[in-house]
Amino acid sequence: MWAGFAVLYATLAVLNLTLGNGLTWVPVLLLGLAACFVVGGALYLHASRRGKFVVWDELLAGVPAPGRALDLGCGRGAVAIMTALRFPAAEVDGIDLWRSVDQSGNSPAAAAAHVRANGVDDRVAFTTGDMTELPYEDASFDLVTASLSIHNIPTRDGRDQTVAEAWRVLRPGGTLVVLDISKARECAERLRALGAEPTTPRDVGWRVWWSGPWMATRVVTATRP
C-alpha cells in the first residue's frame, strides 16, 4: 500500500511537470507526499521485520528468568519463541484467537511450525482462547507478555479485563510487560486501579514506529508484590 501511494504521487508529479498548469508548487507537493510514503513504508517494514524483535530482545534481557511464562495474543509465536530461547529452563505458554485480521497468516499451525523450526517445541505450548478470560489458575506465571495485541481488543472494558486477567495469573514477584501502539497508557491506568505500580509508558523509539512518530510503540511494565 505504501509503495503504491508513493508511485501514484510520483507519477502525478511527473505528469504535472510534463503537462504544466502554471502552479509550480503542485509537483513539489506531490513529490513531497511520495517521499513521505516511501519513508513511512520503510519504517513500517523495518518495525515489522526487525525493529520489534530488537526491542523485545532488550525487554526480555531486563526481566528475571521465569520458570513459566505466558504470551497474550501470541500470533505466530515470535515472543513466546524468543522467551524460550533466552530462558532455557522456562516453560512458555501462548494464547490467541488466531484472527487473521489481527495478523496475516495467523494460525495455530503457523505458530507450531515456527516453534519446531526454532527447536523449542518441547517447552512452548499454545492454547486457543480469549485474553479477556484466561483459562489459567491464579498466580500461574512468573512472566506475562503482550506484544502489540491489547489494542486489537475493540472495547475499553475488554482491554481492562485483559489487564486484570494478566495481573491475576501473575505470581508474586512476577513481571508483566506490555508493548502496544496506542493502549499502553490505558494499561498503566488499569494496573494502578488494581493496586499495581506500573512504570510510566515509555516510547521505545523509531525502531517500532509504524510509519512515523504518530504511530509510536510504548512499553509499560509492572512487578506484582
From TrEMBL:
Record-annotated Methyltransferase domain positions: 70-174
Membrane spanning residue stretches: 30-47
CDD domains noted in UniProt: AdoMet_MTases (cd02440)
Keywords: Membrane, Methyltransferase, S-adenosyl-L-methionine, Transferase, Transmembrane, Transmembrane helix
Gene Ontology MF terms: S-adenosylmethionine-dependent methyltransferase activity
Coiled-coil parts of chain: none
Biological process (GO), any one: methylation
Pfam families (UniProt xref): Methyltransf_25 (PF13649)
Entries under PANTHER family matching the protein: EXPRESSED PROTEIN (PTHR45277:SF1)
Protein's recorded name: Methyltransferase family protein
Species per Swiss-Prot/TrEMBL record: Luteimicrobium subarcticum
